[in-house]
From TrEMBL:
InterPro entries: Pep_chain_release_fac_I (IPR000352), Pep_chain_release_fac_I_sf (IPR045853)
Pfam family of the protein (one): RF-1
PROSITE patterns: RF_PROK_I
Domain Prokaryotic-type class I peptide chain release factors: 21-37
SUPFAM superfamilies: Release factor
UniProt name for this protein: Peptidyl-tRNA hydrolase ArfB
EC nos: 3.1.1.29
Superkingdom: Bacteria
Lineage summary: Bacteria, Pseudomonadati, Pseudomonadota, Gammaproteobacteria, Enterobacterales
Cytoplasm found in the keyword field: yes
Similarity comment: family membership: Belongs to the prokaryotic/mitochondrial release factor family.
Subunit record text: Associated with 70S ribosomes and polysomes.
Organism: Paramixta manurensis
Coiled coil: 74-104
Family matches, as NCBIfam families: PRK09256.1
Length: 136
């Protein structure tokens, strides 16, 4: 179960988790056991609030298909349980990242002291540069 906030959780029943064989070079343990995890999460069929669904479906992300299904493959660990935890953590991070509400930017003006400092700096720089000329 993934807990996104106090009110929003995703139960394990909403995710389709299957174990598959990991890709990559062979060796002991790799080609014999299904240690990689495929996690599929259907956004529109989930119990997420509408705000979350709209934000996730509108996002253009490589893990989300056109049908609105999140597909995550975790195979970085040798153990199936660690790969399962990694896949769940990636799903949680994806949902948190795409549903964050950014603060609206309010235009501000520089203070009078900041304007004076800027002009004084420009004046100092121009004096320094004028002294670099040829000596007459």
């Amino acid at each position: 179960m993934i807990e996104l906030s106090r009110n929003v959780t995703i139960s394990d029943a909403e995710m389709d988790i299957t174990a598959v064989r990991a890709q990559g070079a062979g060796g002991q343990h790799v080609n014999k056991n299904s240690t990689a995890i495929h996690l599929r999460f259907d956004i529109s069929a989930s119990s997420l609030p509408d705000f979350y669904k709209q934000r996730l479906l509108a996002a253009r992300h490589h893990l989300i298909t056109a049908d609105g299904v999140v597909i995550i493959k975790a195979q970085e660990y040798r153990s199936q349980e660690m790969n399962r935890e990694a896949a769940l953590k990636r799903l949680e991070n994806l949902i948190r990242e795409l549903t964050v509400v950014e603060k609206t930017r309010r235009a501000t003006r520089p203070t009078l002291a900041a304007k004076k400092r800027r002009l004084e700096g420009k004046l100092r720089k121009s004096i320094t540069k004028s002294l670099r000329g040829k000596v007459r």
